[in-house]
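Ticket #4471: structure output looks truncated?

Reporter: J.K.
Steps to reproduce: submitted the chain below (393 residues) through the standard prediction queue, then opened the result file.
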Amino acid sequence: MQKESQNIDWDKLIDLLEKPVDEQQVLAGALSTEEQALFARLQQVKNDQLLTGALQLDAAKAWVHIMEKEDRAAPVRRIAINWKKWVAAASLLFIAGTAWWLYTRFSINGAINNLQTVEKAMANHEPASKVQLVTAGGQTIVLDTATQLREKDGTLIHLQQGTVAYENSEHAKGDASLINTLIVPRGYLYNLVLSDGSKVWLNADSKISYPVRFDKAERKVTIEGEAYFEVVHNDKWPFVVHAGNTATKVLGTSFNIKTYGKKVYTTLVTGSVLFTPPGNAKAVKLTPDHQTVFNVGNGNTETRKVFAGDFIAWKDDDLVMTKMTLAELAEMLERRYDVQISFAEEKLKNIEYNGALHLTNSIAEMLKNFEQTSNIQFAVKDKTIVILPANGK
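Returned output as attached by the reporter:
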């Protein structure tokens, strides 16, 4: 390897890199095989925004700066040229080494520039699916294409920006056999006003099924994903939320239920709820700022004291992080923005975050915020966001 390095004419390569592209193509033919391979690699890396960005370097500006200083230093031009070219060569070798690390890390079958910056790749990113309402008759309606519907029993459904609202009247109790389902895919948050006036906020990648009108015995809904409820109080008309095999019964209160993964989290904000696990397990009565965590795998239920506001911040597009790992954060961002995220190294998943921030509509903007406050970088390969260490460390 040392012998090959001694055959490289660095002055010639750096001189060639400074020339116009068309002239480079002509003169490159005079290089040795080793020099041609290295020159091609240096050409590619020199202008690669992703690689220089990952190193927090701006190759173009650095290159111009070197050349400008060289032009001003006429009296010592010969010495300055050699020193500056050595620095330029060393810098490019350092960047090229990082390029090779990225290449082997992600097993890219092709040019290194298959990796893109998040700003470029996600500039026009939109969720793949739309919010849908499935009616009692089985009709699926995309909610950005309608403003008003009427169900079989005559109930009027208002469709506004980000909200589905059912007609609320003195005759809200009726036939509970007409079931509607609201499907909120990744990339969206949505609101629902039920026929009794109760309000529901649905997080991304969630679904709720409910009667167009509740029957006289109880108000019953079923959810998947995550939802925050503000239930209209009625001592004689219980409200029951089914999530998986669990049930949460209330009379009038506000609470949050999250069912992503293998645990069901029930967090009480105001009032009281009765959480009932499946089987013969004992029901748990919650008071405000308490949470049950039901483990679907082993059937255990844990009750703990929390600050409930942290667990409902999502409905206002806010994120509160308390020892949140980067793995957990990535899962949340995948749902919220309908993206795919992978890790360059497993150890990155264990990075913890504490703090709060507001989620904007731009995934690129959010990732930039995390880059500025963390020792990580983001890149995009084949529409997948890749998390890698800053500076290749």
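Triage note (M.O.): checked the attachment and the full token line is present. The two ends are 25 Å apart (CA to CA).
Status: closed, working as intended.
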